[in-house]
Every structure is written in C-alpha cells, then in structure tokens.
Design goal:
heterotrimer; A mainly alpha (368); B mainly alpha (223); C alpha/beta (278); A: MetI-like fold; three-stranded antiparallel beta sheet; 63% helix; 10% strand; B: 223 residues; mainly alpha; Methane Monooxygenase Hydroxylase, Chain G, domain 1; globular
Chain lengths: 368, 223, 278
C-alpha cells in the first residue's frame, strides 16, 4: 500500500519526538531508583550474610542471633591466632591458669544481638498498641463525632504538621517530657522535683520516668500518630455512608452504628496501614536515642509489669548506630554492623510484608 | 407472577363483559318487542340505554387512568385501545337496539306489512356474531374473530335483498310506505349492529395479534 | 405536649395497626406538615411546605433533582440531623400528632417508628440473618427464638423468605441487587415501624427487580404508611395512591395519583409528568 493512500501511516512530528524524550526521562528516573535500591539491598545482603549465615551446618549463625554482644579479644597463643568473646576468653585463661594474655579487644564485636532483637520487638509492640489506641480513638472522634469546622481542620493540620517534625526533635521531646518530667508514684517526697502528696504515705514526684521502655513507647507512638490517624480516618471514610445511615435509620445510637457497622469494616485497613507506619517508625534511631535505648544490657527486660516498663532496652537501630559510629572501626566491627543491618532489614520487611498480606486478605473478605 | 396492576386490567375486562351482556340483552329485548308486539319490552330497552352509556364513560375513565398511571406498552397498550373502541361500539349497538325498539313501537300500531322472516334472521346472526366476538375476546381466539368479520357479508346481503323487496312494496302501493320505511329502518339498524360487531371482532384480532385487519379492501386498492 | 414521644409512639401505631381487622383507617393523616421551611446552611431548601400524608397509603414524592423531595423525606426521621448546617427555619412536622423537632423527641425512638430504605441498597456486609436481626439486637434483644421469629416474619413480609431461607447465614452481599434492596426493606420492617420512607428504592434496579419491589410496596401498604421518593413517573403512577410534585423546594401540587396523572391542576406538574419540563 502506498503511504499516500494510508491515512493512518506513521508520521514523524515534534509531538512524537517530545513524547519519546519525556518517556525516556521517566524510564531513566525509574531505573535509577531500581539501581539504588538494588545496591543498598545487595551490599547489605552480601556482606551481612557472612555474619548471619555459615558455610557449614546448621548454616545459620545461631550464636549471633541468640547471644548478647560481647567484647572480642584477638590474640596469638602458641603461634595460633585466636578470636574469642569475652566469656570464652576468660574461661580460656582460667583453664590454662594464665593471669594475663596480651590481646587486642574490640567492643561489641563478639557474641550476638539477641537483646537488640527483643528490645526492638518490645518497642514495636508497645508503641503500636499506644499509637493504635490513641490514633484510632482520635480518628473516630475527628471523622465521626466532632462537628466539622474550623477547629477540626486546625486539629487535622496540627496532626499533619506533626508528621513533618524531625525525629530528633521527637527524641528531645520524649527526653524532656517522659524521661525528665512525667510523674511517678513513690513512697517518699523527692525534694529535687515538684511533688504532691496523694495520701497513704505516697507522693507524686515529677521526677520523670527515666530512660525506659515506657518513655520509648510513648515517644515512638507520638511519632507514629500522624500516620495512624491519617490511615484510620481514610479507612473510616472508605466505609460506605450507607452502613452508618442504614443502622442509624434502624434506631441505632451513633456509637452502636460505629461499633457494629463501621469499625469492623474499617479496622483491617486501619491496622494494616498503621502497622506499616509503625514499622517505619520502629526503624528510627533518634526518638529512642534519649528515651529508651541502652548501649549495653546483658539481659532482656523482665520482672513485674512496672519493673518491665521502667527498664531501658537495647534496640537494633541504636545498636547499629553505636557500633558504626561510637566505637573504633575495623574489620571485626564491620562484620557485626552488616549482620545487624541484615537482621534489622529482614525484620522490618517481615512486618511490612505481614501487613500488606493482611490487607490483601481483608480486602478480599469485605467487598461492597 | 400475578402483578398487582393485573387487578385494574381485570376490572376493565369485567366492565366490558358486563356492557356486552347488557347490549346483547337490549338487542334481544327490542327484537322480542318487535316480534311479539310487546310495548313494555320496547320501553325497557329505551330505559336501559342510559346504563350502557354510563358504562362506556366508566370504561373510558378506567382506560385513561390506567394509561396515565401505568404507561402500558405492547399488549397492555393494545388492550387499552381495544377496550375503549369495543366499549364505544357496544354503546352504538345499544343505540341501535333503542332505535329498533322505537320503530317497533310504531310498527306495532298497524298490522304487519309482511311476515317477519328476514329481520329476525338478521338479528339472530348479529347476536351470534356479538356473542362469538365476546367469546373471541375472553378466550383470546383471534381466529374466531376473523371468521366473524366474514359473517358480516351475509347480513349485508340479507339487508340488500330486503331493501329491494320493500322498495317493490312501496312502488306497488304507496300506502305501505310508512310501514316499509319503518321496517327498512329496523333492518338498517340490524345491518349497523353487524357492522359494529365486525369492528369489535377486528379490535379483538388487533388485541391478540397486533395486526390491523380493518379496511382490507381499501388498503389493497391503494397498494 | 404532656405525653412523651416514647409512650405515644408505642401505643398509637399499635392502635393503627389494629385496623388490620377492619378496613384501614385512611382518613387519619399520619404525617402532617405545617408551613415547613428548611435550610442547608444559607440554602433555603424547602419553602413553606404544608401537606398531609394519609395512613396506610403510598404517597409518592416526585420532582426534578434538587427539588427538595429527598430532603423532606429525610426530615421525617430526622436523618438530616446527620448533615451539618441543616435546620428547620419555620413550621412543624407532626407524626401521630407529635412535633418531631421537639427537643423531647429522641431520634432513636423516632427512627424505630419511621423506618427508611435508601436509594443504594445498603445491606451490611453480614449474613442475611444478621442484617434482619440487627435492628432488634441493637435494642438489646438476645433471645434467639424471638430473633428467629422476627427474621422469618420480616423476610416473609418482604417476599424474600422463599428465596433465601436456605442461605440465611450467608452474606447478604451475595444476593442480587433487587434481593439486597428487599433485605433492606425486611430489615426496616423487622423493628416494626409504622411508617416506611423509601428514597428512590428502585433507581439502581433492573425492571424485573423493580417490579418485585413495587409489588412489595403494594403489599406493605396494608400494614404500613409508605412515603416513596421516585424519579420514575411510571413507578409513582403504578404504586402510589397520592402524589406530590415538588419544584425548587416548593410543593406545587398534591393529590390523588389518578388525578395528578390524568388532569393535574398546575401547568408545571403537567409539564413535568409528561416530560416537557425545562
């Protein structure tokens, strides 16, 4: 067919050229992201797996996952180069009756990261609970109960702005409010803080909670709140108005309508989006820097509830921060750095994946 | 499923049947009044006419209400049109019956011009046609309706023959003119009855088949 | 007003429903509206509306979109309370003779008496059984046998029992559109209201489902007073006894449906119902 007779034949024009250029640019930008992500994941996975996995059975380095961090001692003994953790090093000396062995010590480079894993776990669970409770409650209030108007818009704006606050500011806020100021009940009048007698020989001392799980929970929870509230409001809005009207028209109170016909359908969305938000917050170092994280704790927090809340924890992000910037760097610390990073990455990915899978399942269950 | 508005259609149908029953009765009473020379029968025919007129108005009201509120289509729509037309034809049949009764009263005052043979025959055919057309309507038999249309011709033939006969009476003896004209009027009324019944039968056919079989000859001539 | 809304609401409809034995008393107006003015913020949505809705009849509200017919309908069970900035400027709505905007009126008690079916069928994503039992459950009824009874009675009332009796415990969302709408009607009658408001109940349904719902409306008027908002002229014609035509927030004409549809008094009404509007 000759081109003149074909009105639909290809024609080169400026518009076509511009399209190719724009398309190429978008493609390039996307591939660039892919490249960066691959590099980050690649380096961590490649270097980290050397620490987390072993070449011989059982393939997983259980010590790294289940032991506490220890100082690594590197020394020469009878012509052989030895690397031993703190405990093993002392046993080694005791067994041979030696008082002193010339050894180089590297902090945190032996043992494992078990207390960091549990610490992170507790931080996530607690802050998730608090953030969900406060966030969902206020989202219900904002979108279902409050009179829509300037006041509510202002509150929404404030919450939105909260999301823009740098994490270090949250850390300092937590330090000021929870660590140094929040009241504790004690059997004595603390002269160094404002304190009020509450009877029964007890006083409310505004001495702060100290660096502990509770402070960390609230600080992290506050940081996650904007995400949780936004996600919850979104989920509430996604529930068709007909469900509310339907139950109200049957003579339900507002709370009955929300409880029976809005929340059950909004909750899956609220939970999954919130979990995603919290998982990201759990990766933050700054908020727990001053409020909950310890450089070193041998044991996981335990004891009664109040004891448990009053204890600080080790946490993966803070641990990474410490071993990669607070101690002398060398080949031994690098191993632990990458190992910890890989475990942390895996943990956060697992949480995110769970919430995404959960959301897909929930979506399929409720369709209207 | 028996829809709630079927009730309205049934009501219209029942009113139509009532009307056809009354019209047929008027016709037979008028004929008996003529044949038996019974003046009271003729009077009651005239009296009953207004009831039939009332029914026509009622049916039209029901039809227009139904059309306005239900927006009937297809068969329901044809049903509405047919109901209105059938009722108006039935009303005309009753009018013809009244006309027969009125002429019968006049005829009864004088001796018969000739024995009544053709006129009762016409009335009999007309009544049968009417009964059959209502059967076709109630029992949804469009074929019966077409057959009725064919029967109209025989009534017309009898009328033409009777007209010729009465004309010859009048030519022979002008004194018979009044009676002959009265008889002719009765015959003409019966011929009109058959025409109205034919119209009804055509409406019934249209109702069930959706085809118009009126004025076949005229249309063929144009085509 | 000495009697509280609760007590009068509880006794009166029972008396009204007692008329099932005899002929329904249609002369008694169920809903009376006196010079009602209604505002959406600054928008004067309803202007000086006065009308009376007879009991045990179907009253249809027709009119172009935005004419205020749905707004008026939602005044009857105070669903407009849910919308910010709405208020009654003037006038009164009386149901069973009681001014429903009186502060002594509890919207919850009111809505149990004045049920509503919405434009978009909105069954809850629960089982059919739970949908019907919902109204009673929120009233605190836990007795399983009573709930079973009410569910069956309501579904029979909505002409749905035979279609769903074998799958009462499957999701109501698995039903067809028409069945869903009838579930909503069953749900509304389960709490035994005396009035059922229907806001374009068939606008999302196909003609067959529509016919079934209309059939149902025709059945329901024996026991309930029904007010239906519709855009479908034929529907108003087919199922209603009374028709009210609204335009720009005003009641233009109200009367017997046959009268409105065959010989309306107002030219606007005639233009609207014959599709010559605007």
């Amino acid at each position: 067919m000759n081109p003149k007779s074909n009105p639909f034949a290809h024609q080169s024009s400026g518009a076509r050229l511009a399209e190719s250029a724009a398309f190429g640019l978008f493609r390039g930008a996307t591939y660039f992201i892919l490249l960066c992500a691959t590099m980050i994941f690649g380096v961590i996975v490649v270097k980290g797996s050397g620490t987390v996995f072993k070449a011989s059975p059982p393939f997983v380095n259980w010590t790294f996952l289940t032991a506490s961090p220890e100082t690594l001692y590197v020394f020469e003994f009878e012509g052989k180069k030895m690397e031993l953790g703190d405990k093993a090093f002392r046993e080694f000396k005791a067994a041979r009756g030696l008082d002193e062995i010339e050894a180089e010590s590297y902090a945190h480079s032996a043992g494992g990261i078990w207390p960091c894993i549990t610490g992170t776990f507790w931080l996530v669970i607690g802050s998730m609970g608090i953030a969900l409770f406060i966030g969902v409650s206020s989202a219900i209030f904002l979108s279902e109960y409050s009179q829509q108007g300037r006041m509510v818009e202002l509150i929404r704006l404030a919450i939105l702005n909260l999301a823009g606050v740098p994490s270090i500011v949250f850390g300092l806020f937590g330090l000021g409010l929870f660590v140094h100021f929040m009241p504790v009940v004690a059997g004595f009048d603390d002269p160094s803080t404002p304190s009020f007698p509450i009877g029964f020989g007890h006083w409310l001392n505004f001495s702060g909670w100290g660096i502990c799980l509770a402070s960390g929970w609230f600080t992290l929870a506050f940081m996650a709140l904007p995400v949780v509230i936004a996600a919850s409001e979104e989920s509430l809005k996604a529930v068709p108005r007909g469900f509310r009207e339907g139950s109200l028209a049957l003579g339900a109170t507002k709370w009955q309508a929300i409880r029976t016909n809005v929340l059950p359908y909004a909750l899956p969305g609220m939970l999954t989006s919130s979990i995603l938000g919290i998982a990201r917050v759990a990766g933050e170092t700054a908020p727990i820097l001053f409020t909950a994280a310890y450089v070193m704790r041998d044991s996981a927090p335990g004891g009664g509830l109040l004891d448990f809340l009053g204890q600080g924890v080790m946490a993966l992000p803070y641990h990474i921060y410490v071993i990669s910037s607070k101690i002398p760097q060398n080949e031994f610390t690098e191993r632990v750095q990458y190992g910890t990073a890989l475990v942390f990455l895996g943990l956060v990915t697992a949480i995110a994946m769970t919430s995404i899978l959960l959301r897909i399942r929930m979506r399929n269950r409720y369709r209207w | 499923m028996n829809h709630f508005w079927e009730k309205n259609l049934t009501e219209i149908r029942e009113q139509l049947l009532l009307m056809s029953g009354l019209s047929e009765r008027s016709l037979s009473m008028a004929m008996r009044g003529l044949v038996n020379r019974d003046e009271t029968l003729c009077d009651s025919v005239e009296a009953e006419d207004s009831q039939i007129d009332l029914l026509e108005i009622q049916i039209d009201e029901m039809v227009i209400t139904y059309m306005a509120t239900h927006g009937p289509v297809a068969k329901d729509c044809r049903f509405m049109l047919a109901a209105s037309k059938i009722s108006s034809n039935l009303e005309r049949i009753a009018d013809q019956a009244t006309k027969i009764a009125r002429n019968a009263k006049r005829l009864n005052q004088e001796p018969l011009l000739k024995p009544l043979i053709d006129i009762p025959l016409m009335a009999q055919i007309g009544q049968e046609m009417l009964r059959d057309s209502m059967t076709a309507y109630v029992e949804a038999k469009p074929d019966l309706a077409t057959e009725i249309v064919a029967r109209d011709k025989s009534v017309n033939d009898i009328y033409k023959q009777l007209a010729r006969e009465l004309t010859s009476y009048m030519i022979e003896d002008p004194k018979t003119i009044t009676r002959a004209l009265n008889l002719l009027t009765v015959a003409k009324a019966l011929e009109r009855v058959a025409d109205h019944v034919t119209n009804i039968a055509e409406e019934v056919f249209y109702l069930y088949k959706g085809e118009d079989i009126r004025h076949e000859r005229g249309r063929k001539a144009i085509v | 007003m000495n009697a509280t809304f609760e007590t009068r609401m509880d006794t009166l409809p029972q008396a009204a429903r007692g008329s099932q034995q005899g002929a329904p008393d249609t002369s008694d107006p169920m809903i009376e509206i006196d010079h009602l003015d209604f505002y959406y913020g600054a928008n004067h949505a309803l202007r000086d509306i006065s009308l009376q809705i007879p009991g045990h009849q179907v009253t249809a509200f027709i009119g172009p979109s935005g004419c205020g017919k749905s707004t008026l309908l939602r005044c009857f069970n105070r669903m407009n309370d849910l919308i910010e900035g709405t208020r009654i400027g003037n006038g009164q709505i009386r149901i069973h003779g009681i001014d429903i905007s009186d502060p002594a009126v509890d919207t919850i008690a009111l809505r149990r008496q004045v049920g509503m079916v919405f434009q978009k069928s909105n069954p809850f994503p629960k089982s059919i059984y739970e949908n019907i039992a919902y109204g009673l459950q929120i009233q605190g009824v836990r007795d399983r046998r009573r709930l079973d009874e009410v569910v069956e009675k309501s579904l029979r009332g909505a002409a749905l029992w035979d279609e769903v009796k074998d799958r009462l415990h499957t999701s109501a969302l698995g039903l067809s559109g028409g069945q869903q709408q009838r579930v909503c009607i069953a749900r509304a009658i389960a709490v035994e209201p005396s009035i059922i408001l229907m806001d374009e109940p068939c606008s999302a349904l196909d003609p067959i489902a529509t016919a079934k719902v209309e059939e149902l409306i025709h059945e329901l008027k024996k026991n309930y007073t029904i007010v239906i908002v519709t855009h479908n002229m034929q529907q108003a014609g087919r199922c209603s006894d009374m028709t009210a035509f609204f335009y720009l927030g005003q009641l233009i004409e109200m009367g017997k449906t046959e009268k409105i549809f065959t010989n309306p008094v107002q030219k606007q009404t005639e233009d609207y119902i014959s599709g010559r509007f605007g």
